[in-house]
Design goal:
92 residues, alpha+beta, Double Stranded RNA Binding Domain, two-stranded antiparallel ribbon, 11% helix, flat
Length: 92
């Protein structure tokens, strides 16, 4: 069972920073998806890929993975860049 741990990114359509400090543990897909012959919907028999756990810190997520024997890869969070700009710069 493999999983990935990453920090929740800010959604492009939101201006606030709520829930961006949370760390997420998601299981990777272990079975291929297939098309349902009757409806044509895409499905899978893998229920672990639907599990998504949130943690307050990266260390808590890593400790959970180690406790339950889950092989987890930690994805680093990119550095946040601020574009400091005055309001008057919009009219130049």
């Amino acid at each position: 069972m493999t999983a990935r741990i990453y920090q929740q990114p800010k959604h492009a359509m939101q201006s606030g920073k709520a829930r961006t400090d949370d760390w997420v543990l998601e299981f990777e897909q272990s079975a291929a998806r297939f098309a349902d012959p009757l409806m044509g919907w895409t499905g899978t028999g893998d229920t672990q890929s639907q599990v998504r756990l949130t943690f307050p810190s990266k260390d808590a997520a890593k400790a959970y993975a180690e406790k339950y024997g889950i092989t987890a890869r930690v994805h680093a969070t990119p550095a946040k860049r601020l574009k400091l700009q005055a309001y008057a710069d919009n009219f130049r």
